[in-house]
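Sanity check

After download, print the first record. It should look like this:
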Amino acid sequence: MWSDTLLIVFISICTALLGEGLTWLMVYRTEKYQKLKAEVERQSKRLEKRKEAHGDSLDKQQKKKIEREEERLKNNNRDLSLVKMKSMFAIGFAFTALLSMFNSIFDGRVVARLPFIPISWIQGLSHRNLHGEDYSECSFIFLYILCTMSIRQNIQKMLGFAPSRTASKQSGSIFGPPPQQFK
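Expected structure tokens:
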């Protein structure tokens, strides 16, 4: 079981490196991406400085300027996402094929034992294709997804491909709060 666990972690590291390498080839090194990323960084910093400088004391003209800059920043973030999206489809297709191949190799094998019993709606994934009723047993797909999610983000940070904190803070995310709006 330990050898399977370590093998899955190794597979996860390799696929994350492969994915980032392909993304670099298809996206990060392109001139369009470089220009958009630099523009988003510049706009994010400028917008943050403006917000800090004016604080809560904004008149209508200053509010409109800031709203226009936020709109431009949002448009550039959208363009940046569109540039990335094309390669993400290709990489997603390749990784789906890899995932199905690895899934067939580890089908029905317990690769790890969890120190807890997952909540019911995750048990279908964590105990996928495993025999028995011990829900602390972990299947390949669950361990692979957990490893890939954590390892890929760290690899992006190490290679410098992760978005800066300023740009992330300005753009917001699905799970985080939206960018602060002036009222």
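If your output differs, re-run the checksum step. Summary of this record's structure: DSSP finds six helices and two strands in the chain.
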